[in-house]
Amino acid sequence: MNNHTPYHEVDQLDPRHFIIVKGARVNNLKNVNVAIPRNQLVVITGLSGSGKSSLAFDTLFAEGQRMYIESLSSYARQFLGKLEKPDVDYIRGISPAIAIEQKTNNKNPRSTVGTITEIYEYLKLLYARIGTTYSPISGQKVTRNTVSDVVDYIYSHPAGTKAIISYPLQLDANANPIERLKVELAKGFTRIIYAGKTTFIEDILSSEQALTSHDISILIDRFVVDQEDRDNQFRIADSIQTAFFEGKGTCYVEIVGKEQKVFSDRFEQDGMAFEIPSVNLFSFNNSYGACKTCDGFGKILGIDIDKVIPNRTLSVYEGAIYPWKSQSMHKWLQPLIENERYKDFPIHRPYKDLTAEEQTFLWKGDGNFKGIDGFFQYLQEKIHKIQYRILLSRYRGKTTCPDCQGTRIRKDASYVKIEGKAITELLLMPIAEVARFFNSLSLPVHAQQIADRLLVEIRNRLSYMEQVGLSYLTLNRQSATLSGGEYQRIKLATALGSTLVDTLYILDEPTIGLHPRDTQKLIDILVALKNLGNTVIVVEHEEELMQVADQLIDIGPEAGSKGGELVFQGDWDALKNFNQSHTARYLNGIETIPVPTQRRKPQYNITFKGIRENNLKDVDVTIPLGVLTVITGVSGSGKSTLVKRIIYPALANKLEIYKEKPGSFDSLEGDYDLIKYIEFVDQNPIGKSSRSNPVTYVKAYEHIRQLFADQPLAKQRSYQPSYFSFNVEGGRCEACQGEGKITIEMQFMADITLTCESCHGKRFKQEALEIKYKDHDIASVLDMTVDDASYFFRDQTSIYRKLKPLRDVGLGYVTLGQPSSSLSGGEAQRLKLATYLDKSHQQEHTLFIFDEPTTGLHVHDISKLLTAINNLISVGNSVLVIEHTTELIKCADWIIDLGPEGGDQGGEIVFSGTPEDMIQLSNNHTAEYLRKKLI
């Protein structure tokens, strides 16, 4: 099926076997008819902006979710999102749809990997049900007695055994026992055990006998053990319950003539009272379980070691302890240097080379040397004086909570363990280690019966997390710190855990952020999802994923107004014999991105020494300037930490344009003074408002408005440029306030978006539309694509120059008035790049940092991106890129590869050099895949 499926063929297909789409016109789709086989893995590909997402998400997902929601009751629908019906003739055979996108919308600081995967919910329940509490003092198991325990003890003795139940009289140190006995008598208790004898309370009171000891027990019950008398058992249990209540948790049982045993229903050991394990004890999202020091956030405002000791390569004698470098504060260091008792302390050794004991001594001190902690305690005591308050504030920062060690849970939750592991330990371990712990876990029979169902859920979810290549994450990792690809793969793992069948899963480029080494794992997951009985549709450019797809759908032939058509549908073998699309020509080798014939030589460089943030292991990194440098490595190897937590914040702080504290490193050396500007081009959306659009973002619209205001009729009517703005009153349509559409709320049904009756979607009043330039009004200009507008304004230098960078980065298909909120992450990143290209001639010596700029890009568009990047370098700038796509890596001048694996097994610089040198490596994951592109 290499072209549009004819209408009659679509109509004749069975919806039980196909998802049938007829007449899809969403965005740029041109009456597309397509039949997608059910319960298969289908890849939708095509150029950026060709209409892939419009078909997959705006058509299929929107209709699948809308139809499911509308099947619910009107009461249920009021709590759910209201979905707009897509512009399509009909869709048949569609299942309830789940979209797994890359948007990390969850910025809640309390959201973690453990909570969004639900693994932590099961862990809390597991520890609450079978966890054993141990005393941190003796390490002994903490237990409490129940009424059943005492009854079992009593009935462990033979029939005829005489027993007495009593409880200790609770007396304060100076209390009068006689007065307290009167109270007990009033409660109905008549006898006490005192000095080993049973005595009536009334006899004590009438004889006014002085009680010389406070060791008095109140007798509750006396009986003979009878194994057959059930009523007697209930009476005994009631007496025991009374003893626990009146004795404040203590009950005495005397087996007459043999022994007396003490039972306690208090959860205590070694003089400490412990909390009984419950789900809330392990929850950092409520006040009961959250760490009291950090309120469940894991961080506090404390003394920041990186501010106190900013350069760990210095020794104590050389001034490693920054606050003691001043003349007035040097006195705090003098005892360590001058006192004979500290002669063995290595004051000339770099701080980073000191042993853990030596570093602890430096902070804690002893009798004569107060230590760094003592210094800050002194400042705290003098905080009423402003100079000390200012000095103390210089060294404060967000630090890991000392009580919970960043786990967010109250400290005593760590006393509860399963097979020697506390829940706090599991939270800080990589998922791979947590999985190993649970896979080898062996429990006693009773605990196993309780934990069976919980362990199945925990093990399955951990296994899915490993399968999607996220074994390096910890359960305590904040959701907000995850990349788009990581977040999407977590949602994919969660979907697998739900084991739904007959569901439509739609994924948005799940290979983004994934090293080619891990792509096969992802493919196995998608195939497993399909084999459960689901239809899996993936919007993707990855060749390896296309090869295993049951069906390929290529949308094109170009992008924007020249796209939106079905140019190919078939399997991989059929695509190899088809050369009528960019996708086919690149995959068949007809079109290629050429390898540079010569690599640029770096003239200058900067070096970061002693980087220790997250999993980076005290590494030194040298970054060349004036060239294209690519940071590579498997997922979780430390790329994002290196760039986002070290390089960008440190350099931006030097330029005084960014105040966030960088991660831990010793020093920045080299030619960093040559960097005059720094630009971090990420994938965050450029605007959430429907009024924000590409033409306003690149500052071209102000020139267009001025052009229309300069037209003779506009001058005659005294129209100012603001008259042609849809953001302010004037020429815009006030009925829709310049939106062109009006949304009508339908309460239980999806909101209806209608074209404005007043302006008919033009956004402007008729008076504004009467102003024309080359027979086009302002509304028709906003409807032009960037490519069309560039030709239209070819003689208007100021406008053409603003639009040209958009074409250079492959955004020629975007319309000038398209809402920025509808742009993908990759499109938003390229839009930002376009603004920098526009001013690159003004800003030389800029370091551009890109976070996976090939996100959402077809190989054809990567070629355009590389041209734009090379243009930046050609005018004297430097470019640093985090990337997995080998098409871009092969064009780098310099590669810095991290690894060798992810998580704790990563964080090292395994290679630094040119691509030609890299492919000589034998045991390198990146080199293995790069070699295929260079040889």
UniProtKB/TrEMBL annotation:
GO biological process, one term: nucleotide-excision repair
Keyword Lipid metabolism attached: no
Matches recorded under NCBIfam families: uvra
Keywords assigned: ATP-binding, Cytoplasm, DNA damage, DNA excision, DNA repair, DNA-binding, Excision nuclease, Metal-binding, Nucleotide-binding, Repeat, Zinc, Zinc-finger
Gene Ontology cellular-component terms listed: cytoplasm; excinuclease repair complex
Homology family: Belongs to the ABC transporter superfamily. UvrA family.
Domain of life: Bacteria
Coiled coil location: none
Compartment list: Cytoplasm
Residues covered by the ABC transporter domain: 340-588, 601-931
PANTHER family listed in its UniProt record: UVRABC SYSTEM PROTEIN A
Gene3D superfamilies: ABC transporter ATPase domain-like, ABC transporter ATPase like domain, ATP-grasp fold, A domain, P-loop containing nucleotide triphosphate hydrolases
Primary localization class, coarse: cytoplasm
Protein name (record): UvrABC system protein A
GO terms, molecular function: ATP binding; ATP hydrolysis activity; DNA binding; heme binding; nuclease activity; zinc ion binding
